[in-house]
Structure formats: C-alpha cells, structure tokens
Write a structure and sequence with these properties.
heterotrimer, A alpha/beta (294), B alpha+beta (385), C alpha/beta (206), A: 294 residues, alpha/beta, 7-stranded mixed beta sheet, 12 strands, globular, B: 385 residues, 4-stranded antiparallel beta sheet, 44% helix
Chain lengths: 294, 385, 206
C-alpha cells in the first residue's frame, strides 16, 4: 500500500516555483525593452497540454497576485471549454477573483482575440501564441530565422506577401497578420483576426505574448507603433461585414462569428461574448474601430 | 445559436471528466492496485519514466493507472509533476562501468572480455500469442523455487563489473577520445533554458534521452534506409543498475541510490573532410531510464548522425530531430487541433470569399468580353477560303 | 549576514515585479515599491534591494560598483545569486548615479541574435519626482510606453552617465536597460523609474 505522504501534492502560489517565476519575470522585462523580439525562456512543463495555452499560463502565473481579477477567453468566449479548464486551474492555484467582465479584469489571458472593449492602462492582455516565429512559414530553420531578425532581413516574408497577392489578389493572411513593431522587428500578433490588429498600435494597455511549446515571449508595450505589413498600393484591410448585423443583438461594427442553426441557416453573432452581453443589456462599451482604406 | 453562446462550458468539461470515470468503472471490474501495475508492466513503466524524464517507478505506475494506460498522457503527467519538484542537486556523472550488469552484449565481436551476457530478453522468443496467462494463474512460487534452486551461489561473488568494448578499440588506436575537439562541449540543462541552435552535444543528448521512443525509431530507421549515411554496429549494449551520487553543500560525496538504465555505444565512422585524414571509429551514444533498448540504439544512431549535419537528410538535421521527437510537445500540438479554431478558420473564409468574388468578377468580365468578340465575329461576313 | 525574514519571497516579489513591469512598460512613471521591513547595507538603497530580491536568483550574477563585501554578501544570502568579478558576466549591475561612466563600456549589451542577454543597470540616485525641484536634471523621455513625451526630475544622476548609456544604446537592438532607484520621502519608501533601451532621453540641468 503506497503511503499518502509520497504523493501528497501541495502547490506553490500560482503553481510555478519561485525560481522559474523569476526567470520568466526577467525575460518579460527584456521583452518589454525590445518590442517585437522573441525572448527564449525555459518554459517548464505544465499540467496543461503543449499547444493548449502553457505559454499564456507561464505569463499569467508569473504576473498574477492575490488581488488581481482574472479573465480568460478562447476565440472571444469566456465559456469556451478550454478557457473554463484554464480558469479552473488558475483559480485553484491562486484563489484569485475571476470575472467575465472585460472592464473589471486586471489581467486577461486570451487565445486568438483581442477584446472589443478598449483596454486601459491598468490592464495587461496575455495572448496565447502557437507559432511565435512569424518567419517560420518562409524559413523552417530556427538558426536562420534568428539571423534574419538580427539583420532585419525580412525580404522573404515581403516576397511571400507579394506572391500571394499576385496569385490571389489578396495577401491571404486571414489571421495572424504580420506586423512591424516599433519600426524594427516583424512579429506575429498571434492568430487574431485582422479586425483586432489595429488595436495593438498605440494602445493604453500592455500586450504580452507567450508561446509555451516554442518557448518564446514577446511584447508590445503601450503607446508603441505597430504597423501591419502592406504595400503602398495594396493596403491593409480588416474584415468587412457589409449589410450584416448580429442575429442576437442587432448590432454591427464588431467581429462576427458565422454560426449555423439546427436547420442549417447561417447567422452571424458578435464573437466577443462579454461584449455581446453588454450590448444586449446596456450602453455599448467603447471600441477602437478601423476604417478600411478605399 | 452556436454552442459557445451557451454558458455551459464549465458544466461540459466537468461532465466529460465524469464520463471518463463512468466508462472506466461501469462494468464493475476488479480494481488493480498500483503495486500490480508497477510490478507487472515493468517495460511500460520504463518507457514512461524515460519519456517523463523522472525516475520513479511508483509515480509512473500511478500515472499509467490514472490514465488507463495512455502512454503519452502518463509521460506528460510525470513531466508536469517533475516540473513542480524542487531541484536540490545535479548528480555526479553516472559511471556505467560501475553498472551492476543484468544484460550486456556486443555485435562487434564474437567474444568479449567478460563474455556476452544475454540477460533478460525476449529477443529470441517466438511471438506466439500465449493464452496461458488468461487461463491459468501462474504458479509463481513453484517457478521461483525451482529457478532459485538452480543458482550456484558460490559463483555470485565473482560477478563484479564489466569493462567496455570500446576500450579495446581505443587501446588499438582505432578510436580516439579527441576526435571531435572543435565540438561545443558545454554542458547545458535544456529544462532550465530553451534550446538554441546550433545546440551543443550535451543539449542534443539530453533531449534524445527524454525523447519519444516511436519518434526516435522512425527517424533512426530512416537513417538506415538511405535517408542519411549510417549503418552502425552495436559496440556494446548494456542494461543494469548504476549508483547515483551527489556532492552535498559541504563538498562530501553522497550515495543516494541506484537506478536502472540501458546504454548503447553504437560504433560508426568519423566523417572526414581533409585529404589523408583517417576515417577512425566513433561512438554514437545512447542512454535512458529503465530497460528500453530500442530507444538507446536509435539514440546512438542519431547522436552520430547529428554530429554530421546535413540539411538534406532528416536524421542529420538537428532542428528536425530534436524538435520533432519531444513527445510532450508533439502530443500537445497535434491534439490542439481539437480546440476551437473558428475565428482563425472564419478569418480564412473571409479571405477566400474575397478571392472567389474577385475571380468570379474577372470571369464575368472575361465572359462578357468573349461574348462581345464572338458576337462581333459572327456579325462580320467570313471570307470564302 | 542578515537574512531578511520580513520579506515574503512569493507575495512581495510578485507585487514589486508588477511595479517594475509598469516602470519598464511606461518609462518616466515613478513607481513606489510597497514597503517591507528591511535593513539594507549602507551601499544599497531600499529600492535597489527590492529590485534584487524580486529578480535575482542562482541562475544569474550581479556586479556591484563602488560597494563592498557587505553589500555582495547581503545580496547573495537573500537571493542565492553571486557577485560576478567581471562586469561583462553580470545580468544586473548596481551603481551610484554619480559614478564615472567608464564601467558602461564593459556591461553586456547583448548580441544581435540574442539582444535579450544584455544586462540591466540599476542606478542609485538621491531623489526623483515627477515635478522638478532644485539641483538635478529634468529628463524628457520619448519612445515606446510613452504617450507623446513625459518628464521626470532626478537628483544624483550624472549627465556623463546618461551620455554613456545613450552611446551603448545607439545600435538597437543592442543596448542596456536601466532602472533608476532611490529612497523616497517617507519612512521605508522606495522609488523606481524605468528607462528601457528604446527610450530616447534628453535632459536639462536645473
């Protein structure tokens, strides 16, 4: 019979050991000082699968304190199954207050969306990143992409955008549109829709990006210029929903999900679940909206 | 409305977890004890400890039992558990010459000092499905009693340790310690810092030792079939227990126990570039927890292959081998495709619809132009030929 | 050597880290590090000590300029980090703001492929405030983290040190990131200001 004491599991506050937290914290500070550059970090294993948010968790758990109010969304929704699983984990390991209300949160972890409601200078948004290396699609080797960033040699990605445009008439980047941060590093904004990309530039809040499996952290500080890659004559556009309104609220001017009901009818619903709740029950929270160039 | 408009995510995952338990127990089976898993699934435990990078048969047994035998999940649990453990010491380098050998063979020579010791292996049994375990209870006491009675106890004291086969090759000068002098010899710990490329040998070996066995097998095998240059010989394969020692804060060496490891020294050739340089023998090294011979053989082959980088062959490519055999990362990321991806998918649909619209407009324009040309041609009188 | 028992390695270090993160993300914002009952050695101000306690561990080394064994031992005892004899080996360098700038030449400013390996310099000054006072420098800061521009006043920071820092930071992404620390007005008060390598600093004497 195995004695209980061998398997007794008591956890440090926020699960991660203090030594690892310090390492992550040092790396976060360096990421802030070099906007858009991918800082390698130890990325220890977590009880959550790689590819399911370990990088976001490393950041959240190194940042979070008992007085934080934590929100977590996946594809814009608080109730999404993986968001529920991660929320449960963070709450169990910290005892923090959790919320669905974007405005009430001090720390927000998100997979693949930036909330519609403008974030303030008291808020930090942690984004989960599957592939932090924006150049990986044009160069498979890490030792080469590292060199390309060092020399600001971004020819390959410009060529790939150009070729996509020539072939298809569009740059073919639905999500994860490449951005130039502070005029120097080209980075991925994580697989957020183009709709969210303008929100990254000159924002009030701090954006941190965590890729656990690939072991990289990068950052967009507040009030930092972020430019989606575009050509002089082929400019960046966000998604348009011409003549379409949210079936649940009647509102437009938000990123919409396509959903199919049981009869197979296609409808559109506001993706950001907390934003949807708010527009259905009260005044519309402020957003930063981008106007597509003609 | 789509399912996520419903706020039932937490309930859904709680129910999912409960369903797993329901399916586990609904036939009301006789529960097995962790000690039974530990003692009767030895090789599975060894595999999980190696990939979980944690030497603890009891924890491996518990993990396997918890996840109903899913090896990827069990190794993952051990890794995650390991990450919570406090690091007190780095052990002193294991000296496998001190191994209490259970099994030790060499394919390079017919006879070696100390002899070929087959030890416990199923290599030379026939893989015939044997129903006796399902039918009868094994007569353990009778078997052990009879087996132990045949052991000549007077000979036990004579069994000490075995020298290494590679020592023979080194004493003849066919293999040298200093053949890779310009290699990066730094010792790094890839669990404390992300691996950077090109990686020093210590990082490569550390990752290979924790790698997923099937992944190593796949790539190792490819190097034997033309996707790389390798046909190595097992210089020595040994399996047994080695003492683990640490140096404590006051500088004293302390013995903390023994662990079972399998070790392979695969003999290949040094790749020579300079004219006149001798293609001497080299060792491709493999070591892992427990008894896992496939893993160490493949590890040794890949250690050699990685010392000869060649981007045209997957097995000779550091980034390919090391990134794609890290079991926990592979398992997580391949399975992450099950997560909702509707925003990214729809963002792609938007793009695609734009392209299709544009193509249709173009086709419409061309069709109109073509129709206009055809109409003009029809209206023009044709010359007689 | 005093092991600071009132310092909570979990909760204090998290709270102080958030202040440091805010300082680096919003250069020119003076952050007050929440009070801890400590007895720093003479060469280190309270804020520098709290920076060290929040960020140092056995994985990195520090270097102290113009200080003694006492300060080094204090940091080692309380963080597990060790003193690097060569400045280039240190991840954190602690110096007074009036120190001659020669030391900046040797501080690790990272490499083009790994600019994050650069050190952080902790510069101890006599006083700092958002509003200017006498005998100091008014720093005007611009760059990421700042909406337009912002100013802050410090006393005890040598313009030569700022010039030398500027020179090391001239070739982005190479550079050294700075945290400026001082004891605040009140009892136990500790102030910190962040100047990342991306920050453009101009100054005037007042």
């Amino acid at each position: 019979m195995v004695e209980d004491v061998k398997f007794r599991a008591s956890y440090n506050f926020a699960f991660i050991d203090e030594s690892t937290k310090k390492e992550v914290r040092r790396k976060i500070l360096k990421a802030v000082c070099i906007p858009g550059y991918q800082v390698p970090y130890s990325s220890p294993e977590m009880p959550i699968s790689r590819g399911w948010g370990t990088g976001g968790l490393h950041l959240t758990l190194s940042l979070i304190g008992p007085r934080d109010v934590f929100k977590i969304i996946d594809q814009g929704s608080d109730a999404s199954v993986n968001a529920c699983s991660l929320r449960q984990f963070v709450k169990r390991m910290t005892g923090c207050e959790v919320t669905f209300d974007t405005a009430a949160a001090t720390l927000i972890q998100s997979r693949h969306r930036v909330p519609e409601e403008i974030l303030t200078d008291k808020q930090i948004l942690v984004l989960q990143v599957p592939q932090p290396e924006v150049l990986r699609g044009v160069e498979r080797y890490e030792f080469k992409t590292r060199q390309m960033h060092a020399e600001a040699d971004y020819a390959k990605i410009w060529v790939s955008l150009y070729e996509a445009y020539v072939r298809f008439g569009t740059m073919m980047r639905g999500s994860g549109y490449p951005i130039r941060v502070n005029g120097r590093y080209i980075a991925t904004p994580s697989p957020i829709p183009r709709w969210d990309v303008p929100n990254l530039s000159m924002a009030h809040c701090l954006y941190l990006f965590g890729a656990g499996r690939e072991k990289r952290i990068h950052c967009i500080p507040p009030y930092t210029k972020v430019e989606p890659l575009e050509f002089e004559d082929v400019l960046f556009h966000v998604e348009a929903f011409p003549g379409i309104r949210c079936a649940a609220s009647g509102e437009d001017n938000a990123f919409l999900d396509e959903v199919y009901d049981d009869e197979g009818t296609r409808k559109f619903v506001i993706n950001d679940s907390n934003f949807l709740d708010k527009v259905r029950s009260g005044p519309r929270p402020s957003q930063r909206l981008f106007t597509n160039p003609d | 409305m789509g399912y996520v408009a419903v706020k039932g995510g937490q309930d859904a995952i709680d129910n999912a977890a409960e369903l797993v338990e329901y399916y586990r127990w609904r036939e009301r089976p006789q529960p097995i004890e962790t000690t039974q898993v530990r003692s009767q699934f030895r090789l599975l435990i060894d595999k999980v400890m190696g990939e979980g990078s944690l030497y603890s048969p009891e924890h491996a047994a518990l993990a396997l039992q918890q996840v109903e035998g899913d090896v990827f999940e069990a190794a993952f649990i051990l890794r995650a558990y390991r990450a919570t453990l406090q690091r007190r010491f780095y052990s002193d380098t294991l000296n496998t010459r001190d191994m209490f050998v259970q099994r030790r063979i060499s394919s390079a020579f017919r006879e070696i000092p100390g002899g070929q010791v087959l030890g416990p292996t199923r290599d030379y049994t026939q893989r015939l499905l044997d129903p006796s375990l399902a039918r009868d209870t094994p007569g353990i006491d009778a078997f052990l009693g009879e087996f132990e009675s045949r052991i000549d106890r007077t000979k036990l004291r004579g069994v000490t340790s075995f020298s290494k086969v590679i020592d023979l090759l080194m004493s003849e000068g066919l293999m040298r310690r200093d053949q890779y002098t310009d290699e990066d010899r730094r010792v790094v710990d890839i669990t404390r810092e992300a691996i950077k490329f090109p990686a020093p040998r210590s990082a490569r070996l550390q990752m290979l030792a924790r790698a997923e066995t099937g992944g190593l097998m796949c790539i190792g095998y490819s190097t034997m079939r033309g996707y790389g240059e390798s046909h190595q010989t097992v210089g020595e394969l040994r399996m047994g227990t080695v003492p683990v020692r640490i140096t404590d804060q006051s500088g004293r060496k302390r013995y903390i126990g023994r662990i079972k490891v399998t070790e392979a020294e695969m003999i290949g050739r040094v790749a020579v570039k300079k004219k006149g340089a001798l293609p001497l023998l080299s060792v491709g090294y493999g070591l892992c927890f427990g008894q896992n011979e496939t893993k160490v053989i493949c590890m040794g082959m890949l250690d050699s292959a990685l010392r000869n980088p060649n981007v045209n062959s997957p097995g000779n490519n550091q980034e390919f081998v090391l990134y794609h055999t890290e079991g926990v990362e592979l398992y997580g990321f391949t399975n992450h495709l099950k997560l909702p991806h509707y925003v990214t998918f729809q963002a792609g649909l938007h793009n695609l619809r734009d392209v299709v619209d544009r193509a249709e407009k173009q086709r419409g324009v061309r069709a109109a132009e073509f129709a206009a040309v055809a109409a003009a041609a029809a209206a023009t009188p044709k010359p007689r030929l | 050597m005093a092991h600071e028992l009132s310092y909570d390695p979990i909760l204090h270090s998290q709270r102080h880290f958030r202040s440091l993160l805010d300082s680096m993300s919003r250069p020119g914002t003076i952050n007050e590090l929440s009070a801890v009952d400590l007895t720093p050695p003479p060469g280190l101000n309270r804020a520098s000590v709290l920076v060290a306690f929040a960020l140092l561990n056995a994985d990195v080394q520090f270097h102290l300029v113009g200080m003694t064994e006492q300060e080094a031992a204090y940091l080692t005892t309380n963080t597990g980090s060790s003193h690097a004899t060569e400045v280039a080996g240190a991840a954190f360098v602690f110096t007074a703001g009036h120190e001659p700038p020669a030391l900046l030449e040797e501080i690790n400013c990272g490499t083009l492929t790994y600019p994050d390996t650069a050190a952080t310099i902790v510069i101890q000054v006599e006083a700092m405030a958002q509003e200017p006072s006498a005998d100091g420098l008014i720093l005007t800061l611009q760059g990421p983290g700042i909406d337009g521009r912002t100013s802050v006043w410090v006393r005890g920071l040598s313009p030569d040190l700022l010039l030398a820092l500027q020179a090391r930071n001239a070739e982005f992404p190479l550079g050294i990131d700075a945290l400026v620390t001082c004891d605040g007005g009140g009892e136990g008060s500790a102030r910190v200001l962040g100047i990342p390598r991306t920050c453009q600093v101009t100054w005037e004497v007042c």
